[in-house]
Specification:
alpha/beta, seven-stranded mixed β-sheet, four-stranded antiparallel β-sheet, 7 helices, 34% strand, globular, binds S-adenosylmethionine
Length: 250
């Protein structure tokens, strides 16, 4: 898988769900589906952290992800919770479903998995191919913070703590990073301390600066309708934690 993160513990379904307990974005996504309609396609849906709560609201959803392990967890959870979701094992840079969507969304910084211009352009081209005339595409990415990107790479910073899926106690995760300012890739190392041993995982995240992502969307055929700075729908401004961009095909 050229240009994106390879399979790793970080995107392994079971530990992902034990580690990632984030729910603050769910009400935002529910209100976007109500506003823009269905069916809905989530790009890089992972274990269904967002997809499943949306389907529980009665919305029609398709979740697409490149990781079988993440999808296996998603399928198991949706069966357990008796919600009907179409799960697709596919690459968001190359999918052709022969179906149109009222809303396509790319939540929780997953777009940072697209490292090269050609990855971004091929993903945007697939989005254009699947968006209804009145449909919306919503991206949710960080507003880069230079103080985090440029912090001391010799130190370890707290990341998370979660129960080991194999029952070996609590796993403590610390991280550090080296930011490459030519490729705009933040090379993160995650140190998982499991039963006295340390397992290192790498996560490479492409950083998108505000003016850059707006220009990329424009030159790839999208018009930005609104740009928000957080899930409370506050407008994007200097210091906003997020860039949430609502756009349509021009
Ligand atoms: C941060 S997780 C987000 C999962 C989920 N959307 C959430 O909000 O919890 C990023 C996901 O992107 C997926 N991914 C990475 N590269 C991808 C690609 N090229 N196409 C589809 N999914 C990809 C990973 O497998 C992982 O599940």
């Amino acid at each position: 898988m050229k240009g994106t993160n390879k399979k790793q513990l970080y995107f392994d379904g079971k530990p992902y769900d034990l580690r990632v307990k984030f729910v603050r974005d769910i009400p935002f996504w529910v209100s976007q589906v109500r506003k823009y309609g269905e069916p809905v396609l989530e790009l890089a849906c992972g274990t269904g952290r967002v997809t499943i709560p949306l389907a529980k609201e009665g919305f029609k959803l398709t979740g697409l992800d490149i990781s079988e392990s993440m999808l296996a967890e998603a399928r198991e959870k949706s069966e357990r919770e008796k919600v009907d979701i179409e799960w697709l094992h596919a690459d968001c840079r190359d999918f052709h479903l022969g179906k149109m969507f009222g809303l396509i969304f790319f939540p929780f910084n997953s777009m940072s998995e697209l490292h090269r211009l050609e990855d971004i352009e091929s993903c945007f081209s697939c989005v254009r191919e699947h968006l209804k005339k009145e449909g919306r595409f919503i991206i949710d990415i960080f507003n880069p913070r230079l103080n985090i990107l440029l912090r001391d790479s010799t130190k370890h910073y707290p990341h998370s703590t979660y129960p080991d899926p194999d029952g070996k106690g609590m796993i403590e995760v610390t991280e550090n990073n080296i930011y490459d300012d030519a490729t705009q890739i933040n090379r993160i190392k995650l140190y998982h301390k499991i039963a006295g041993k340390v397992e290192i995982n790498e996560l490479n995240m492409r950083i998108f600066y505000p003016q850059e992502i707006d220009a990329l969307l424009k030159y790839d055929g999208f018009t930005i309708e609104r740009k928000l700075g957080d899930y409370d729908e506050s407008p994007f401004k200097s210091g906003s934690p997020k860039q949430i961009i609502i756009c349509y095909v021009s």
